[in-house]
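[SOLVED] Need 3D model of a two-part complex

Original post:
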Amino acid sequence: MAEVIWGLATSHVPSIGAAMDRQKTDDTNWMDLFEGYAPARAWLAEHRPDVAIVVYNDHANGIDLDFVPTFGLGTAERYPVADEGFGPRQVPEVVGDPDLSLHLLECLMDEGFDLTVFQALDVDHGLTVPLSVWTPDPGDAWPCPVVPVLVNVIQYPQPTAARCYALGEALGRAIRSYRDGVTVGILGTGGMSHQLAGSRAGFINPEFDRMWMETIETDPAKLATLSREDLIRQAGSEGIELIMWLVMRGAMSEQITKIHSHYFVPASNTAAGLALFDNRVPQPEPVPGPPPREKALT
Amino acid sequence: MSTPEPRGPVDVPGTPIFDGQSSRRGLRMNTMFMSFRDEANRTRFLADEAAYCHEYELTPEQQQAVVDRDWTAMIDLGGSIFYVYKLAMIDGLSMQYLGGVFTGMSEAEFVAEMRAGGRRDG
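Solution:
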């Protein structure tokens, strides 16, 4: 059985990557953010998984509007870093894990998640910034191979929060049915509250973000009941990205332990959140209930 | 588990929703913005913006909005902010600048509001 060892939820704001790429992490406007990352980075450096699954969305760099896949999965051996209009970020190419990808694809298909398959994909800041949040100085290579899971959060209707959570649960089962001894880190990216366009641009909702940060750990099923409109109203039109945290959370155990979290406003126009959870926690015994009912079908 | 998703357009004041109708309306313009990932295309656009818009079959209103850099009109005419931003990048403008335009502020004022914790409803 393969095992999810940790989950990292993090914003993927491009300016976080740009601040790192331009050595601005000591800048007074950024210092608190990067100091807040430090404990998570230290713990992650001690807990390197064999492979990471990054749940993210593309921002008009790897895919355009000719096709809008609701859920997608990368099955490539390599994912080049996208040129977003000012040259690719100077970070290592992302190495894939096609064996795990194809295993996940088959399991998820069998569970009714009809994923779009990406055999070639340029990955943008939605994927590379979370890798930088995890590993600020990767050198020539990221810590491990990566499997991208894509979620459409840009064009309405986005998948429901409930469907994202259910995808995560199926992903967790698929990971656990993979070959023995493989350790997996899972990243849920995007958010927190923000809105880029309209007269409400710049909207931030710290109360909602605080609630989300707590509840993602303790009662994710409750977050999965929020509608798209709830999310857009309370977290902003781009804050709906938070549904990707639910994919991560669904793949984890019922009980998880928070290692570290941090909240920072603003990363450009966005409330940036980070939450790192250890998934290797003894789980509660199932509550003894009545014996299963006999099937009434005749 | 299922979420009771309300039917019909989402109506949140001051919040453009990039939905299927917007995307249909804006497809050609957004496709043009997507072409700006390629430097040769950026150069060709800047050399003759109207001709480049014409090549992508923008509507006259969309072409006017692009040439005038009327960012709000581009959003109203079906632009997705992530695509519109590619034009802003050509001009060397930031998302904070656009935030200022959308909210009737200068970039500096918008940045100051964000650094003060962001904007709230009401």
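Edit: Chain A has a mean pLDDT of 95.
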